[in-house]
Amino acid sequence: MTHADVHSKLASVDAVEQALRDASYLPDRGLATAIFLSLRMGRPLLLEGEAGVGKTEVAKTLTGVLGAETIRLQCYEGIDASQALYEWDYARQLLHARAIQDGAVDQEQRVAELYSSQFLLGRPLLQAIRAGDRAVLLVDELDRADDEFEAFLLEVLAEFTVTIPELGTIAAETPPAVVITSNRTRELHDALKRRCLYHWIDFPDVEREAQIIKIRVPHASDRLALAVATAVSRLRELDLIKRPGAAEAIDWARALTILGEDGLNDDSARETLGWVLKNHDDIRRAGDKLPELIP
Asked: Which of 56, 102, 117, 270 is 20 to 30 A from 224 via CA?
């Protein structure tokens, strides 16, 4: 989809909101506005919020809306520039060098080919630069990476160019859409935040979560969807190690639907708590208060 097509299809906040809803993602007005402005202004969208509120799903849904591909850079402790940008395929280079020694490769090509694009392994950032507006770059859980990598990422996002000494400079003709997510295990730096458009995604209210469940689990009854949404909302008010997100609510509703349940009761909730809570202490704590949680 060209930029003209994007601007035509997503010409307003209302259009963005409707396009996401058509793709089975129910955004609130604030998120739809943030996505619209991010696309129009060509700025990365930084999404923060607790795990499970749908931050990563925004990028995946936006990919479908734009007719693009998702290029995902999953961040983790210790990630460095080479793992995010590019690496040389040393194993193939070694085989090529041996072929040169054996005389199987033209001597005039030997030096140039050892560091040609055929031996270059493009990692997510280089892939996104090459893809341009045909991609949505998802930088997932940036808070897991260290300060040095965050500074490197900021430099790349500023220009969407990379210089490879052996090949020269590669630049994106049109930058890709960029979605950065963070679970706030640490604070991101102000310099990165200034480069981005920021939006906090909170847990949905009961009514919207019931709607989300119905879209993702169409066979669930309205009664079950509302009961699960209400119970999950009450679970989040407990002192839990890991509060359940929308993904867990969907899984819980799907499990109950498969079991043939039309609502929640003490037995069905207790038998399936492992779908919505993923910690033994949380399950025990919730089990003690189960009668209060079931609507």
From this structure: 56
